[in-house]
Specification:
Structural class: mainly beta
Distance between the termini: 24 Å
Number of strands: 3
Largest sheet: 3 strands, antiparallel
Strand order of the largest sheet: 2-1-3
Strand content: 35-45%
Number of helices: 1
Radius of gyration: 12 Å
Helix content: 10-25%
Order of helices and strands: EEHE
């Protein structure tokens, strides 16, 4: 049985001035999966969550929630 991702991020990039907060990030979340987002300060964790929530937009890349952009 094939499960479709509920969240898909494909090659997302976010730039603030001269700093790349996210650089070509890809990620899929399938139903029933649990993930933990960890990293050092400045790694882009908050930026990724802000993009997923719609608070900010990436400069490049594709974001899908339940198959919809």
């Amino acid at each position: 049985m094939q499960r479709n991702p509920i969240v898909e991020i494909d090659k997302a990039t976010k730039i603030y001035g001269n700093h790349r907060a996210l650089d070509d990030v890809s990620f899929d979340l399938l139903p029933g999966e649990v993930h933990c987002l960890v990293g050092e300060n400045g790694a882009g964790k908050s930026t990724l969550i802000k993009i997923l929530s719609g608070a900010i937009s990436p400069e490049a890349g594709l974001i899908k929630i339940d198959g919809k952009e």
